[in-house]
Amino acid sequence: MDFLIHWSNVIFKPIIDLGAAPIMLIVLTLIAWAVGVNFFHALEGGIKLAIALTGISSIINLLTNAFQPAVVAFVKATGLHLGTTDLGWAPLATITWGSPYTLFFLLIIVIVNIIMLTLKVTDTLDVDIFDIWHLSFTALLAIYFGANLLTASILIIFIGVLKIINSDLMKPTFNDLLDNWDNPMTSTHLNYMMNPIIMVFNKIFDVVFPWLDKYDFDAAKLNEKIGFWGSRFAIGVYLGIFIGLLGRQPIGNIFTLAFTAATCLELFSIIGSWFIASVEPLSQGITDFATKHLNGRVFNIGLDWPFIAGRAEVWAACNVMAPIMLLEALVLPGNTILPLGGIIGMGVAPALLIVTRGRLLRMIIIGAIELPLFLWAGTLSAPFVTKTALKIAPKMVPAHALISSSTKEGPIEQFLAILLGKGQAGDMKMLMFFALAIVAYTLVFLWYRHEMLKRNTEYAKQGFKVNPDVMLKDKAAAK
């Protein structure tokens, strides 16, 4: 095991130290070149992807920083203090990548993906290697609470396999939402492992509240009817004003917040299209390679989530859920985290979009129901995050404070890690709870898989091109 950890560091560390955008430039370029794309054409796609990632990151930071003063002012006005500081996802990624085990876990998941492709268990080639830190965080959390390296590795291999299978299941829905049935993109991001839980609530809505969809807010359709007042710009203005009023900001600050939010929502749409352009060389290269050597087998390209960022529903839901999360944090029993760095719920909204297919009211209501899971996970993981940060980057940690993230991806997986760790540390009750939880986690995922296969079969019936591997073979089951 130590030998593998050493060599995974030797192989990957020089690349990882470059950062997310350069990593994806190198990975996308080399893979496209390897399947026969002209080097400079492959490099063009890699550069476009690096630019897209940099743009998305910059806009998220702009939006988060714009919201924070209003949120802080609201908290001060209420006089409430919560002891865990929310730093957002970026510092947690830095902390996680500071562990030598993260590169070891990356090597494991790369091997798992290759095996799955070889055995035709998946058609997704996961190129989003930077975001392996989400799985690594889960494993390191388990180890912190008492698990050994072997069981922590088995846990993330299990989650990683389901995550890659899920990327195949989601592919037709991504095509539908992008209105582009020829693109090769899907996502292996961990935030989509919330899909099964969201699907449960979505089915409840289908049965109990189907009438709610009549009042749904479709930004695209409204824009067709009333022009500017239903556009992304306008949505940003409305939500910026709301946040500004909630934080009792001066009128000048409210205007600034409104215009900043409007700008960000429009830029998200533009940058989202860059992701599509960036993978075109790789897509064509894989198609040509598969046609020549693999009897035309279709491959998906697993990317980070922001290629779907052009959907206005993502940002509308995020902005509405921001004050909801803040209010929930103030009253939620057992919560110690004050949402700041994670106030824009990037770990929440993309999965909501996929399961509901953009029905905004469902996204907001289901999101409000699941937000406590993220707050509790952030609270429970705070001692681990703080202790690790003090070793790797002590300047991140405020004096006499705990740090965490309020919308860290994979809250359910974090609960599993904590149960496993405490169980292996000798708490038999926690070990029993872990066994029950992993069974429930698996069963809910299998049910969710069945529901997504039915959805994909319906897409095929409507005449859309759908890979047979993501369709129900049993026609009776699709009825």
Q: Point out poorly predicted stretches.
A: 474-479
Could you describe the largest sheet, including whether it forms a barrel? 3 strands, parallel
Distance between the termini: 49 Å
Radius of gyration: 22 Å
The total count of strands amounts to 6
Tell me what portion of residues adopts beta-strand conformation.
Answer: under 5%
Count of alpha and pi helical runs: 18
Query: What is the mean predicted local confidence, pLDDT?
Result: 83
How would you sum up the global shape?
A: globular
Helix fraction? 55-70%
Q: What strand order characterises the main sheet?
A: 5-1-6
Instruction: Determine the structural class based on helices, strands and strand pairing.
Output: mainly alpha
What are the secondary-structure elements, in order, as H or E? HHHEHHEHHEHHHHHEHEHHEHHH
Task: Characterize the structure shown.
With 479 residues, the protein is mainly α. It is built from 18 helices and six strands. It has helices spanning 2-16, 20-34, 39-78, 89-97, 100-118, 133-144, 149-178, 195-208, 219-226, 232-246, 251-278, 280-293, 312-331, 349-356, 360-392, 411-424, 428-461, 475-478, and strands spanning 84-86, 124-126, 185-187, 300-303, 337-338, 402-404. The strands form two sheets. It has a three-stranded parallel beta sheet. A three-stranded parallel beta sheet has the order 2-4-3. Helix 5 (100-118) crosses helix 7. The longest helix has 40 residues, at 39-78. The model is unreliable at 474-479 (pLDDT under 50).
